[in-house]
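Q: Give me a backbone?
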Amino acid sequence: MFITTWQEILDIQNKLYPEWRSKKPRLLYSTALAGELGELCGVITHLDGGGTNLQKYTEAMILEEAADTYIQLVLLLEKSGFDIRHFHNAIVDKLTVLRKRLKSGRRW
């Protein structure tokens, strides 16, 4: 599933912004990722009773903002020269480290 969604994100980006890999700086995608993550955090803040914005927030907005965050992460990784295989391997490597920590009883 993630392979096809990853590719669809790239296909849409290539159609909407054909020169995105060559013309737009990586920093733009880093900033966009931070912005989307901030929006996700903002939704949670409001749902949990914080903030002063009068907009109506819903639990479904968490998923919407998480999807936006994932899309920007995909674009940033691709702009950095990585693909889904690299990302998958990084996750597997990180899980291996965490499993070792579990076995050793060490948290950090």
Remarks:
- Residues 2-82 form a domain with the Helix Hairpins fold (CATH 1.10.287).
- The chain has one domain: 2-82.
- The two ends are 32 Å apart (CA to CA).
